[in-house]
Write a structure and sequence with these properties.
eight-stranded mixed beta sheet, globular, binds carboxymethyldethia coenzyme *A
């Protein structure tokens, strides 16, 4: 794994949260993108070398809606940049981690992604991200 690619924060209401995070970061999002396959709206901030992704559910069946219902708003996942997502998935599988996708899928912000179940990583949901070149 190369570095943290972004940190995902689950929010109930994107519009209200953007008002807050704009003030906190003293900047505005560089991108918003709906990821229909995940039933989420995503909002990205660039803070120096770091990225923060706000996630708002667009359906009750979204993982974000379920997360907020169970745990409330807050940090949802940590995403790591990887060079070769397929190789990294194979490596993690071999180490006994449970992958939540059999194959990489298209995520927000031009990435191939795969999630790793939080039960295998001390309750932290991990996302692997490979930039689509
Ligand atoms: N971080 C830590 N723990 C989490 C979690 C998260 N983000 N989401 C759920 N959990 C917990 C649940 O609370 C549950 O805990 P308990 O067993 O103590 O009750 C446990 O993980 C397992 O829950 P589950 O019932 O097996 O599964 P859920 O229906 O809660 O789904 C998960 C959990 C991670 C499998 C599901 O959310 C998933 O597949 N996530 C990957 C996809 C995703 O998160 N998409 C949204 C973001 C998309 C994007 O970034 O673009």
């Amino acid at each position: 794994m190369n570095k943290i690619e972004h940190i995902g924060i689950a929010v109930k209401n994107a519009e209200a949260s953007v008002t807050v995070f704009n003030k906190l970061f003293n900047t505005t999002p560089y991108k918003t993108e709906a990821v229909e396959s995940e039933y989420v709206n995503t909002i990205f901030y660039q803070i120096g070398p770091n990225k923060i992704e706000l996630l708002e559910a667009t359906s009750e069946s979204s993982a974000i809606a379920k997360f907020i219902e169970k745990k409330g708003e807050g940090i949802h996942h940590i995403a790591f940049d990887v060079e070769d997502i397929v190789a990294e998935m194979e490596r993690l599988k071999g180490e006994g981690f449970t992958l939540l996708n059999d194959a990489p899928k298209k995520g927000a912000d031009n990435k191939l992604i795969c999630f790793v179940h939080p039960k295998a990583s001390n309750g932290v949901l991990i996302e692997l991200c490979q930039e689509i070149k």
